[in-house]
Amino acid sequence: MTTSECYTCGMEAEFDALPPRERIAHDRYWRVAHATGTSLPGKTYVVQFAEAEGFSHVHFHIVPRDGALAPEHRGPGVFGLLRAPESERVTAARADRTALALRAGLAEQAGRPS
How confident is the model over 27-47, as a mean pLDDT? Predict the structure, then answer.
């Protein structure tokens, strides 16, 4: 199910023009995108919420976590890094580099070219 009221689903209409950070991996059913407004690049935790207005259907969030993550930002505390001040956010360029590296790694594991 997609809806134009949902930011993530609304981006499907622009799929071919999306930057790498918006289409790390995809198939007929899924599209993996880097989070916006976060100060944390990459991915590890998997979380699902469907309560925010405009996101009332299933979206899974894969949230970064590395060994240097402060204790207060582990587990659900990682969401404290969302909506970071502009000066602390992952830049679009860094998100794109991260997305391309993830895409290449996924393709390598699957045995196909990225």
Answer: 77
Is residue 32 within 8 Å of residue 24, measured between CB atoms?
Answer: yes
Q: What is the pLDDT of residue 6?
A: 73
Residue 90 corresponds to which tokens in the numbers above?
């992952």
Region of 42 (left: φ > 0; alpha: ψ -120 to 50; beta: rest) is left
Which is higher by pLDDT, 7 or 93? Answer: 93
Q: Which two tokens stand for residue 59?
A: 């979206």
Residue 103, C-beta contacts closer than 8 angstroms, at least 6 positions apart = 20, 24, 25, 114
Question: In 3-state terms, what secondary structure has residue 82?
Answer: strand
Closest CA to 98 of 23, 9, 37, 29: 23
Element containing residue 61 per DSSP (H, E)? strand 60-63
